[in-house]
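A.,

Following up on our hallway conversation. Structure tokens first:
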């Protein structure tokens, strides 16, 4: 039987929750990574992904001027990056340089991939939908990549707490 409770009381039941990193190019030729939980596949044909970004985020400002973006699936090696990319603002510093995050060039768009991620998706922006205090940006996947060692992905297991799930153990 269901009982009605405050939203905050149900929010913690969603863990573990996938965590992602969205990367957009900034106006100075660099790249801004932002941690994001609200990412989803939205279409099989064509392959499409969407990310929900709050209006107050620097990444939201950048999305107004870009035609493409990357969605990275962080590996269990990337908890420090996920924390940093979600708490520091790219307005103030180069988040990639601060941690020495390894990157490589994307193959189909003018962006970068996170070398130690489990996977990276290169996306061409196709649309946006306003939803309250966030905007959902959709993009067609034009290239996909995975780590050569099939690194397990990172999950948010509680607020500001991260852990991995090894897919080979199932």
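Then the amino acids I'd put at each of the 170 positions:
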């Amino acid at each position: 039987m269901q009982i009605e409770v405050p939203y905050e009381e149900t929010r913690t039941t969603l863990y573990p929750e996938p965590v992602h990193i969205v990367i957009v190019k900034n106006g100075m030729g660099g790249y801004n990574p932002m941690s994001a939980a609200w990412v989803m596949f939205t279409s099989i044909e064509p392959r499409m992904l969407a990310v929900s970004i709050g209006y107050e985020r620097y990444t939201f400002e950048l999305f107004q001027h870009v035609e493409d973006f990357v969605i990275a699936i962080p590996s269990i090696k990337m908890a420090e990056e996920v924390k940093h990319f979600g708490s520091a603002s790219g307005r103030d510093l180069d988040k990639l340089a601060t941690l020495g995050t390894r990157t490589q060039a994307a193959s189909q768009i003018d962006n970068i991939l996170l070398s130690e991620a489990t996977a990276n998706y290169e996306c061409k922006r196709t649309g946006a939908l306003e939803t309250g205090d966030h905007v959902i940006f959709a993009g067609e996947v034009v290239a996909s990549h995975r780590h050569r060692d099939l690194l397990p992905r990172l999950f948010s297991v509680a607020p500001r707490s991260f852990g991995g799930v090894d897919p080979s153990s199932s």
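DSSP finds four helices and twelve strands in the chain. Curious whether your intuition agrees with the design.

B.
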